C-alpha cells in the first residue's frame, strides 16, 4: 500500500476513533490532565481494554496522541482535533450509516421513500458542541444587542436542548419551547433539561419546523432561534413558504436569529476546510439543497422578514447568523 493510500486509510479509522474517544471521555481526560493511564482509565470507566488500545493506536497513527507503554499523551495534532472533535462525531457516528450506504444511495432506483438513515440523537449530541464552539460567541453578541427583555423563546430544530438551556441559565425568568422532528432527540432534550433543573421552564414539542401551524403554546413567543437546520427549508420556493408559515405560527416574534452553514464557494477541492466536504457530501447524498449565502439573502423580504444584520461565523466555512425582524 502506498504512503498516500495508507494515510487516507488510517485517517478514516482515526475519524471513528476520535469520535469514540470523545464520547467515552478519553479526549477530555487528555485535555484536562495531559496524561492518561490506559489500564487504570479502562477499569475506572468499565471499558474493554483491548478495544481501547486499538482505538488509541488509530489515534496515534494520525498523530492525535503519543503512546508510551500504558501511558497516553497528547500528540502534535491533539489541540486541533480536540477543537474539532464534534465534527468527527457528526460525521462518523451521526452520519455513519448514510456514508456506509453510499453505493446504494447513488443509484437512482434506490432513491425512493426513506432511502437513508442518520442517528438523530448522535447528531444532536455533536451539534450541541458545534453550536458552543462555532455559533455561540456570535449568537450571544446578537442576544446582547436585543432591545427587549427575553421572556419567551422558541428554538426550532432544538436538538438535545443545549441552546434553550443556555438561554434559561442567562435569563432566569424566561420560558422556552423546543421544536424538533426526532423523538429520540426530544427525549434527550427532556432528560438534559431535567438534569439542569429546567424541567418546569422548558417544554419540548415534536413537529416539523417546515410546516408548523399556529399553536397556543407559540402565541407569546417573542424570540425565535434556529441553528444548523435552516438549509432543510430549501429549495427556494419551499424556503419562502416555510418562512411565511413561521410568521403565522409565531405572531408576536420580535427577532428571529437564524444561524446556518451554507454551501461554501471559492475553495479548491484540495483546500476545503474541516467539515465542509462531509457536510456538503452528506446533504447531496440525501438530496437536500444547500443554498449559498447569496441565495439566503434573497429570500427574506419575499417571505415577510427584514434582515437587520448578518453576523459571520468563522468555522464552519460559509456560516452566519442572520438577524431577522
From TrEMBL:
InterPro entries: Methyltransf_25, SAM-dependent_MTases_sf, WH-like_DNA-bd_sf. Keywords: Methyltransferase, Transferase. One of its GO terms (molecular function) is methyltransferase activity. One of its GO terms (biological process) is methylation. It comes from the Bacteria. The keyword Transferase applies. Residues 153-247 form the Methyltransferase domain. This is Methyltransferase domain-containing protein. It comes from Amycolatopsis suaedae.
Amino acid at each position: 500500500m502506498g504512503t498516500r493510500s495508507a494515510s487516507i486509510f488510517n485517517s478514516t479509522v482515526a475519524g471513528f476513533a476520535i469520535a469514540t474517544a470523545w464520547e467515552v471521555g478519553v479526549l477530555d481526560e487528555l485535555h484536562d490532565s495531559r496524561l492518561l493511564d490506559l489500564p487504570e482509565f479502562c477499569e475506572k470507566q468499565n471499558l474493554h481494554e483491548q478495544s481501547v488500545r486499538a482505538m488509541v493506536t488509530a489515534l496515534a497513527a494520525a498523530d492525535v496522541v503519543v503512546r508510551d507503554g500504558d501511558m497516553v499523551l497528547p500528540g502534535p495534532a491533539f489541540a486541533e482535533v480536540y477543537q474539532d472533535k464534534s465534527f468527527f462525531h457528526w460525521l462518523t457516528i451521526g452520519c455513519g450509516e448514510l456514508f456506509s450506504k453510499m453505493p446504494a444511495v447513488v443509484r437512482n432506483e434506490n432513491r425512493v421513500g426513506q432511502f437513508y438513515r442518520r442517528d438523530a440523537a448522535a447528531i444532536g449530541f455533536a451539534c450541541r458542541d458545534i453550536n458552543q464552539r462555532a455559533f455561540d460567541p456570535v449568537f450571544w453578541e446578537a442576544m446582547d444587542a436585543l432591545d427587549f427583555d427575553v421572556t419567551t423563546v422558541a428554538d426550532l430544530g432544538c436538538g438535545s436542548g443545549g441552546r434553550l438551556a443556555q438561554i434559561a441559565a442567562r435569563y432566569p425568568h424566561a420560558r422556552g419551547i423546543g421544536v424538533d422532528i426526532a423523538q429520540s432527540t426530544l427525549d434527550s432534550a427532556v432528560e438534559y433539561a431535567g438534569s439542569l433543573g429546567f424541567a418546569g421552564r422548558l417544554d419540548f414539542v415534536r413537529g416539523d419546523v417546515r410546516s408548523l401551524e399556529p399553536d397556543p403554546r407559540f402565541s407569546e413567543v417573542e424570540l425565535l432561534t434556529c441553528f444548523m437546520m435552516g438549509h432543510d427549508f430549501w429549495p427556494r420556493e419551499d424556503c419562502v413558504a416555510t418562512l411565511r408559515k413561521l410568521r403565522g405560527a409565531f405572531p408576536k416574534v420580535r427577532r428571529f436569529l437564524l444561524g446556518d452553514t451554507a454551501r461554501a464557494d471559492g475553495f479548491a477541492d484540495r483546500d476545503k476546510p474541516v467539515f465542509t466536504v462531509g457536510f456538503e457530501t452528506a446533504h447531496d447524498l440525501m438530496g437536500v439543497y444547500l443554498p449559498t449565502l447569496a441565495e439566503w439573502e434573497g429570500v427574506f423580504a419575499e417571505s415577510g422578514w427584514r434582515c437587520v444584520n448578518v453576523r459571520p461565523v468563522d468555522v464552519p466555512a460559509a456560516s452566519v447568523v442572520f438577524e431577522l425582524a
